[in-house]
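Box 3.1. Reading complex inputs
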Amino acid sequence: MKEMSKIVRNVTNLVYGFIIIFGFYIIAHGHLTPGGGFQGGAVVASAFALLLISYGQLKAKKFLNINIFSLLESCGLTMFIVVAFLGLGTTFFYNFLANSGSWFGHMVIPGINPGDMNTAGVLPLMNIAVGLEVFAGLGIIVLLMADGAEFTKKKENS
Amino acid sequence: MNLSNHTPILILAVPLLAAFLIPIIGKINKKATGIFATLVLGLSLIFTIILAVKILSVGPQIYVFGAKSPFLTLPSGLKFPIRIMFQVDAMGIFMGLITALVSFLGAIYSLAFINKNNGVDNYYSLLLLLTVSMFGMEFTGDIFNFFVFLEIASMASVSLICYRGTDLGEPVEAGFKYMVVSSISALMVLFAVGIFYGEYDVLNIAAIASVMKHSQLDKIALGILVSVLAMKAGAVPVHMWTPDAYSEAPAPITMILVVASQASLYAMFRVVFSLYNITLNTLAVGWIIIIFGLLSMFIGVTMAIIQKDIKRLMAYHAISQTGYMLLGVGVGLAVLANPTALQRYGITAMEGGIFHIMNHAMYKGLLFLTAGALFFRTGTRNLDKMGGLAHYMKYTTIFFIIGAAAIAGLPPFNGFASKILIYESVYKFNPLLSIIAMVVSILTLASFVKVFHSAFLGPKLPQFKEVKEVPRSMVLAMAVLSCIIIFFGLFPDLIVKNLVHPAVMSLIEQFKYTNTVLGGM
Amino acid sequence: MLGLLETGSGFWSAVVWVILVLVIGSIVYYIRNKGEESYKKNTEQDKPFLSGNPEKAKEGSHISASHIYWGFTEALKGYYNPLVKIHTGDINDYSGWIVLITVVILIIVGVRE
Amino acid sequence: MIGNFPYIAVIIFIGLGIYTLIFKRNLIKIAIGICLIENGVNLFLITLGFRKGAVAPIYTQAPSGQAMVLPTPQALTLTSIVIGVATTALILSMVMMIYKHYGTIEVNEVRRLRG
């Protein structure tokens, strides 16, 4: 795909950093505000799509290729399952960090409560794992679709 | 933290973790992914056997995710189950054993069948994902969880059907058709789940079953679920995706797809027996399932006789054998209301139907593996181009004979054991059904004689001079299936008394199903 | 006794069946051996008698799969032509079939009683 | 007073989706038909949880004493949307592969497997 106009490329350079930060914000605050792993990952992946469209291809950026994304995706998935396995003391997916006073487990009263970053035990870890996996997965989908579109355009021209 | 009371989830979680690790292992060394996947599936087979022994001795097992007990007590003292949980009873573990065994053998077979160059790690991670989703469909006690596993199963099987799609067009077409059909059916299942949640505010199958009032809405949900799950199992009017999907998928995947559609068949029995049981009009729904069975049997086998592609022929036979299961369990359901008829022949009919699920998974798997072996050596699936292969592929011929004899229901093999249960009990219900079943069995034998003659018999053809026997791992998988078929054929009562009868009882007795969850109220 | 399957009205034992086959098979084999053994292997007597014509090469004589049951399919042409035509293979018909069957079952289960 | 309007919208969504699936000849339109049905079912799930005069079920800083909409259907819809993304991505990539091999995406030309 050929590059978009200069205006689009400059706006993208300005904006895609903030989109990625906003995406990570949604992932990290999944248990407090609406959002979570999947939605945050989708926002971050939209930043990659923006880059891909405005620059025509991501090959210029060395680190944004399929192998890195697939590695990230596998790590995200494995982290999710390992965190679920850690709860195997009582049962699978058990929230062993909640109300335990350790890293993410501040004491919290049931019912309506203000809640802050580390009152939800295992949930933030799960959200980060899912967010990692989703933005890598959607990144792969966007890249492959771009290659597929490239292939069909070449086939039509020839 | 002894391992034995965590077995229901370990059967699923270990292959799931392995499925996610495989892309990483694939980067280190290509050959290790296949062996790693086979070992993990062997491990989950062992866990399934441990769980089966525990269930058949102690009773149905419940495994709750995320908390000790499935209940949430509101401040007002109202208690109702909200947690997602696995409820594995005799019928669930019966299907779990089939799934574990068939996917383990499929992994062994594909060690040699799948060539190492394109996307091997995708293949094995999708294989593990398909196995995990089938286990999930069979063990889950939560109806929305069943929808999620149904969707994962259809997505994993579609991607595996399109595995040979990089250089061929047909597999992608078959995969696309199956995906469109599965998406419609999964969304209709979600609609039915919405109806259940709207009416009873609870998603747990046992809890819904205990408060089921069979209102007008429940009839709509029942209608949707029966027709959609019949489609996923491959019953006739809606079976047309089956020949396309089974003939285009690689052979070990077709074997596992057969068991995946049997998992949807299990889900239909679970909905009809455990969710509704006596509240529905058993005669009407029973006759619907019987008509599905009859159509599947007759049209499946008549379409099979005129096929030229060996895997397409076997796919149509899979449809006609599913008709036997539907017939057997349909008769059991039709007489569920009056206990005398149920005792006289209803339970035997259901035993025949459910035992046929196990037998069918074994010999249909064996036949698809032999078809895969022929394709592996001759490169073609067209029966007109094959001939005289018995001269070169001795073992495959023996395995094919065992498989064909078993599917046609010849006496010493396991097909006959379950078919005689169906014939005798269905005859008491309505003689015509039993006669049609026997005619279909004869036509099945006729079409497999055709395959045997055109593919194996005949003179040595010049173009197959350098064909030799298939590698050892493929022969091993086929040999294990043949031994199981012969063992089940010679001692069917062992399997029927210890495995099939408890499974039938766990389907019929709905109060036992609800008590295991709500009993602990 | 091991291997005895109660089937509603009677029982089925594969082990007894196999023993019977072996016994009867050995009797038949014994009677067959009693027969005339005077023919000598791969001599003139061993060849099929085609009224003196030389035996043609077998490669051409293999009946391929599409011709084996032509009589059966020819006789049932009235049944087979519409049946094969129904299997059109395009997705619109597949989805049409599902919606049709769901509507039919909804009518039977939902409205009838 | 929303009455039964959302349920009518659900029926229209699913009806349109089924119409496109059965009568439209283009594979991309069939993918759109599936998305239509999926949106219809999601809307159905969401309207099940609706309570009159209730507020979104967010626990943090929620005004106490205010009735809340049921959170479970929203969780079901979220999972259904995630599955919808995966299904649509799979179907669209298969349409691309079919176009690569068949050169066409008309339904009556993409049917080599029949009979």
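In summary: Helices of chain D lie at 5-23, 27-48, 72-102.
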